[in-house]
Amino acid sequence: MTLAPFFDAPLIVQLHIVAALLALGLGPVAMLRRRRDLVHRVVGRVWVAAMAATALSSLFIYTIRLIGPFSPIHALSIATLVGLWAGVAHVRAGRVADHRSTMLSLYVFGMGIPGLFTLLPGRIMNAILFPAGPMAGFVATAAAACLLALVWGMRRPDHIRMLMGRT
């Protein structure tokens, strides 16, 4: 592991990485705490701020250019900002189940899946984590995607019963 690619990156990319790593680490803490718990509220607010900083900073990163200076990740960033607003609006209106669903979706689809793409060869996080073998990042991405699909698919008890041969 080497931090040289991080320090060589533009300031906006450094901000993006720091905000994303903060959101990635705080997400489970907020989700695993009891609702209305002080720690949940404080960590949740910091998580929302980190997610917003991640999404906003990504709007100024133009590494992948598919439509002019933009790429699909820019649409994801706008969707993330809208989702953050909706999640906060849900909890303020007392719609806790909607809030929980929105925030979990933002974590998985706004952090998890894009995070996997950062491990592909040629990306900064791949260069940081796998400086000697960039293809290791591809293997790690494939393994993480398979694990994520397995966990996501087994989140319902009927899937577990089916795998164990019980109906």
UniProtKB/TrEMBL annotation:
Keywords: Membrane, Transmembrane, Transmembrane helix. It comes from the Bacteria. The chain crosses the membrane at residues 12-32, 44-67, 73-91, 103-122, 128-154. This is DUF2306 domain-containing protein. It comes from Lacimonas salitolerans.
